[in-house]
Design goal:
- By secondary structure, the protein is an all-alpha fold.
- It contains nine helices and no strands.
- The protein is elongated and about 60 Å long.
């Protein structure tokens, strides 16, 4: 018996899926509660059947958005280091982290239920995020851009604190000031002559 062929999705289907992910992410960020699947489809300019064809359940959509955002954070660390100094890369990565936290606004109940049921492994996500922070920290230590006595866990805890007291959307300016203060604390002290 031969294995069934697994084909890559057609280019237009892949574009539609990517568009739905982008729209769902924007809707989740802006939502006060969990938006309906119909509201997401309407915002994307597609019928509800198209949304369900790509994401048969709310959980499958939340999972896809969550994994997409985690992927952006983990690959973002390396990409930022490719064109920015480590301290600048860290500050920009902090903004990406804030975007990720904001995405949870409109999917928090579903996300928590999925974590509780084991559908999403929170420990794996935490490990991936800490590894991304460590990538930037290590580059910063080597360049003398960032303090060597700060851990990825320290930065993660600080970021969670900042985005708890200055959630996005709505408090971007306050969050930005707090992130800048955190960055000031991450830079090595100037050496005296």
């Amino acid at each position: 018996m031969t294995e069934p062929e697994t084909r890559a999705p057609r280019a237009d289907a892949a574009r539609n899926r990517d568009q739905l992910l982008a729209v769902a992410t924007r809707v989740f960020v802006a939502a006060d509660g969990e938006p309906s699947m119909r509201a997401i489809a309407r915002e994307a300019g597609v019928g509800i059947a198209t949304l369900y064809r790509h994401f048969p359940t709310r959980e499958s959509l939340v999972d896809a958005v969550y994994r997409d955002q985690v992927g952006r954070l983990t690959t973002g660390a390396r990409e930022l280091l490719g064109h920015l100094a480590p301290a600048a890369a860290m500050r920009r990565w902090m903004d990406l982290f804030g975007d990720w936290i904001a995405t949870k606004n409109g999917m928090l109940d579903t996300l928590l239920a999925m974590i509780e049921s084991g559908e999403i492994a929170h420990a794996d996500t935490r490990g991936e995020l800490l590894a991304a922070i460590t990538t930037i920290l290590d580059a910063g230590h080597a360049a003398g851009d960032l303090r060597s006595d700060v851990s990825a866990e320290d930065i993660a805890a600080s970021l969670i604190g900042i985005f708890t007291v200055a959630p996005r959307p709505g408090q971007e300016a306050k969050a930005g000031r707090l992130l800048d203060l955190l960055m000031d604390g991450l830079r090595p002290a100037a050496r005296s002559a």
